[in-house]
Amino acid sequence: MKRYKEYYVPIFFLILSVLGIIASKASLNFILGELYDRFVRNEIFLLALIFPIMSGMGINFSITIGAMAAQMSMLFVIDIGFTPKLGFIIVILLSTVLSIVFGNIIGNLLNKAKGKEMIASMVIGFLGTSLYQIIFMVAYGTIIKPFNKDILLTRGIGVKSMLDIGEFKDLFNNILSIKIGDVKESLVPVIIIIIMGIIVHLITKSKIGYRMNAVGEDMYLAEKVGIDVDKTRKIAIIISTILASLAQIMFIQNLGILNVYTGHLNLDIFASAALLAGGATFKKANIKNAFIGIFLFHTLFIVSPLVGQNIFKNPALGEYFRSFIAYGTIVFALMINLKNVERNT
Fold it and tell me: Which residues form a coiled coil (predicted)?
């Protein structure tokens, strides 16, 4: 039975998803269309969590910093007024550079908080959000003079809470088009995600991936055999932050709207929950967990409002039911993982 314990959480989510689909009475086309959008918007976030877990740091809740790097880069491009194609490339390059800088800072901080990385990364995420909001609520329009004043609030200070980036959303239109459900979509984002998955897999099997695994298993033993533990952990966080920034670019591009102040909130929680739903633990995570988890968790997330509405005959209760199911299953996944950790110690 021990060899099947890693499948307990995915099986639980699979059962809930099947029951949810039946109870929701949702059409297959509707579910497939929603799953496409959620896969494109969220999958790379799950990939971003793998390397810190491999390195023994648990779930990296500071991936929100990477998402903020992407939002800052997108705001810069909108402010300057680059064309969508050139702007998209600049966003990727700029967010990558910012992510390397931020990831290096986060890595140094987490190296000083060994054994408490998950709590520390959560606090870092909150601190980063506060600084980010101060910059764009107060500094923009006062200290920072924008080129495009249309992005400012009517008082001339602070960026608008929501910006339309529909031109970026249309970038992949009519390129490798395919009908998913009732909607015509492009395969380009899916191909990008698959390529990113292959890159992540290759890194896990490379020399640095071996070092991350060694550090995750026993950092003191790894240090004795000549592995630079702090540097390895820092590299894991930098890669994680870069992937999170790329994930947020995919999210923004697919949505077609930039939520300046709230676009990065809770993405760490839902990415973590989806990865756990795929069978990952605080000590072990891989590509398989990321791809299984995204479909199981988000299928449940799609149908749960409809389930609540059908059972209670009240649309408002449907949203409460969604929150109950989502957070309830997160707690269940965490309990199972904590129980397994206790048994192994």
Answer: none
DSSP-derived letter for residue 105 is H
Instruction: Report which secondary-structure segment, H or E, holds 315.
Output: helix 315-344
> In this structure, which amino acid lies at residue 117?
E
Q: Rounded distance, CA 91 to CA 168, Å?
A: 11
At residue 331, the 3 state secondary structure works out as helix
Tell which CATH architecture fits domain 2-344. Answer: Orthogonal Bundle (1.10)
3-state secondary structure of 172: coil
Query: Which residue, among 59, 85, 88, has the nearest Cα to 74 in the 3D structure?
Result: 88
Inter-axis angle of helices 28-48 and 229-255, nearest 10: 150
- Closest to 163 in 3D by CA, of 154, 151, 174: 151
Axis crossing angle, helix 188-204 with helix 229-255, rounded to the nearest 10: 170
What gap in Å lies between CA 141 and CA 122, rounded to an integer?
A: 30
The residue written with tokens 């300046």 in the block is: 260
Read off the pTM: 0.88
Q: Which residues contact 83 (CB under 8 A, 6 or more apart)?
A: none
Q: Where are the alpha helices (DSSP H) in 81-206?
A: 84-111, 117-134, 166-169, 188-204
pLDDT in tens, 102-160: 999 999 999 888 888 888 998 999 999 989 888 888 888 788 787 878 888 778 788 88
Backbone angles phi, psi at 278, to 5 degrees: -85, 0
Note the pLDDT tens digit of each residue in 230-261. Answer: 899 999 999 999 999 999 999 988 888 888 88
Phi then psi for 164, rounded to 5 degrees? Answer: -80, 125
Task: Return the structure tokens found at 90.
Answer: 């600049």
**DSSP class of 156:** S
